[in-house]
Amino acid sequence: MVTRLVDIKSPEDLRKLSIPELETIADDLRETIINTVSKTGGHLAPSLGVVELTLALHYVFNTPNDKLVWDVGHQTYAHKLLTGRQDKFSTLRQYKGLSGFPKFKESEYDAFETGHSSTSISAALGMACAKDLKKDSNKVVAIIGDGSMTAGIAFEALNQAGHLDKDLIVILNDNEMSISENVGAMSSFLSRQLTSKTVRRLRKHISTRLKDLHGVGDRFLNVLKKSEENIKSFFTPAMLFEALKFYYIGPISGHQLEDLIPTLENIRDNVDGPVLVHVITQKGRGYGPAEANPGNYHGVGPFDVLTGVPIPSSSPISYTEVFGKSICTIARNNPDVVAISAAMPAGTGLTNFSKEFPDRFFDVGIAEQHGVTFAAGLAVEGKRPVVAIYSSFFQRALDQIIHDVCIPSLPVTLAIDRGGVVGDDGPTHHGVFDISFLRFIPNLTYMAPKDENELQHMLHTAISLPGPAAIRYPRGAGENVPLDPDFVNLEVGKGELLRQGEDILLLPVGNRVYPAIKAAEGLEKLGINAAVINPRFIKPLDDELICEWARKTGRVVTIEDNAEHGGFGSLVLELLSKNKLFAVKTHLLGYPDHFIEHGPQKTLWKNSKLDSPSIINAAMELMKD
User: What DSSP character marks residue 475?
Assistant: First the structure.
C-alpha cells in the first residue's frame, strides 16, 4: 500500500518511509499547497521551493525535541501539513484559522514565532546556548533564505555563533543561485564525503599526529588545511562562512532527497560546533507559472490553478498603485527624486519607477536600517530620497529615523505603506504602531491621507519640504475618488473641516475619515449633528481648527487605524490639555492593548470598533454624559 500525505499524522510517520515514498509525499504536499493557496491566497512560491528540504529536516531530526527555527516563516506550509494540521489547512490565513506563519499556540513543532526576516539565527543561537546550559543534547536548526542574509542581524548572529562555538546548524536556503549539473554533482559528493564520520575521524587523527611533530608538523597541517579549503572554495562560496568560524557544507540540491538526507544525517551524527549547509532550491518548484515567474507568485491572492491567472477583482485602484504612479510623475519633473526599497519594489509600488529611472532606484535588500541612513546620505548631497517600506518593517529603523534623519533635519520622505491592519498576514505585519512611535519625533512632518487623491498631493508636499516627512497610507483599495491631474502642495499643519455640527466632533485620521463621514450621516438621522474634521497632518496638528470645534461641541471622538495607546487620540488629549479644554468630553477609538490576529480588514475594524456603526455607538454614549 502506498503511503500518502493523508497517512502522515506527525513527522514520526515520515521516518518509517523510503526515499521513493517520501517523493510521493512531496508530490502530495505540492498539490495540497497549490490547491489551497489558489483559494485562500498566501505565500506560494516560497513554500513550494522548500518541500523536499522540509521533508528531509523532519525525517532526519527528532522534531519537536530537535528545534527547527524558520526565518520569516512564510515558507512553512509543508511544515504545517506534516505536523498535524492537515485537517485545518483549508483555513490557512482565514479569520480564526491557521496563521500563515509559525505560531506557538498552533503546534509544539513551531519552535519560534516569526513573520519578519533574518531573526532565525539569533533565536536558534539563543536556544542552543540555553540547551547547553541545561545539558540538553538536542539539535537546533535555523533555516534562512539568501534574501534574509542581507540583513545585518543575520551576520551579527553568525559572528557570535562562530565565537561561542555552540552546536548550531544553519541551513542557507539559496533560491537565486543556479549550479550546472556537473558542479552540482561534485559539490554534492564533497558535501556528503567531507561530513562522513570516517573523514572527520581521519582529519582529527592526522591533526593530532602532526601536532606531535614540533615545527614540521604545524607546517604540514597548514598545507593540508589549505588544500581542503581550496578544493571547497573552488566549487563553493565557503570562505566567508569559514571566516566566521562555521564549518561550511555545500552547495547541494534542495530537491534531491537522496543527497539531502545523508548529508543532514552526517551533520547530525558527526559535526560539532556551528555548521552552515548551503542548499540550492527553486522558488515555485512544481508549479509551472510559479517557476516561470517566482516573484509574481511570492505572495498571491486567489488564482485559477490551471492557468495561474489571478481571479479578477473589481476593487478601485490601491493606495500603493497611486503612490507608484505619483512618484513617477514627480520624478519626471524633479531629477533629484530617488526611490529606495527594502527588497520589496513590487509590494511598495516601485516597479515602474525602477524601470523608468533605473539609475535613481535603489533596492537595499532586507536592510531597513541601512536603507534609512543610506537615504540620509543621499539627502546630504542634495537628493530627495523617498524610502518606501511597510509600516511594520519601518519599526526596525526607528533609531536611524531619529538619529540620522530627524536630528539633522534632512529632507527624507518616509512612504509608510500598510499603515493600519493588513488583513490575512496578521500581527507581525499589521502596521498599527507607527503613529505611536513616530509622532513624538521632533522635526518630522507626518501626514495621513483620507483617500488616494489626497495621497498624491501629500507625496508632492513631502518631497518639497526642507526637512523630513512621513506619509502613512493603508493596504488595499482607495475610495474610488477622481485623481487630480496636477499635484499641489498642501499647507503644512492645516486640516479640513468636512462637515459642520454643533453636538459632537468626529476626529478621524487617514482611512477612518470616510467611515466617520458615514457615521455622521447616520447620527444625523438620530437627531445628532456631528462635525467631521480631516486632520491631514498628524504632526503638526491643526491646533486652531481642532480646538475651535472641540470648544463648540464639547465632545470629541477620535478614530484611528492604530494602537490607541500613544496614538492619534492621545495626541489630541495632549492638545486639549495644553489648551486647558478640560471640560471637553472625549472617547478614543483605536486598537486595544493586545496584538490583533489575522483576518479580513473589515472584520478587524468591526471587532475593534473602528467601523461606522461603532463610531455611531461611541458618539451616542458620549452624548449621554
Answer: S
Residue whose cell numbers read 504545517: 80
Band the pLDDT of 175: cuts 50, 70, 90.
confident
Q: Are 17 and 28 in contact (CB under 8 A)?
A: no
Choice among 67, 283, 475, 555 that is catalytic: 283
pLDDT at position 225, please? 55
Rounded to whole angstroms, how far apart are CA atoms 300 and 174?
21
Supply 202's cell numbers. 581521519
Mean pLDDT for all residues in the chain: 91
**469 phi, psi to nearest 5 deg:** -145, 155
Name the nearest CA neighbour of 447 among 464, 466, 472: 472
A 10 A CB-CB count for 586 gives 17
pLDDT 10s digits, 567-584: 999 999 999 999 999 999
Q: Is 368 part of the annotated catalytic residue set?
A: yes
- The residues with which 558 forms a beta bridge, in sequence order, are 507, 588
Indicate the pTM of the whole model: 0.87
- Residue 235: the pLDDT is 45
Q: Which residues pair with 248 in a beta bridge?
A: 276
pLDDT at site 192: 53
- Catalytic hit among 85, 192, 368, 452: 368
pLDDT, tens digit, for every residue of 292-347? 999 899 999 999 999 999 998 878 999 999 999 999 999 999 999 999 999 999 99
Tell me the C-alpha distance between 287 and 308, whole Å. Answer: 9
396 is catalytic: yes
What is residue 2's DSSP assignment? -
Contacts of 231 (CB under 8 A, 6+ apart): 190
Question: CA 414, 415, 421, 423 torsion: positive or negative?
Answer: negative
Q: Which of 67, 139, 192, 396 is catalytic?
A: 396
Give the alpha-carbon dihedral of 396, 399, 400, 406, to 10 degrees: 130
Residue 11 in contact with residue 63, Cβ under 8 Å? yes
What DSSP line would sit under 501-534, residue for residue? -SSEEEEE-GGGHHHHHHHHHHHHHTT--EEEEE
Predicted confidence (pLDDT) at residue 189 exceeds the cutoff of 90: no
Identity at 132, one-letter amino acid code: D
In angstroms, the CA 242 to CA 247 distance is 6
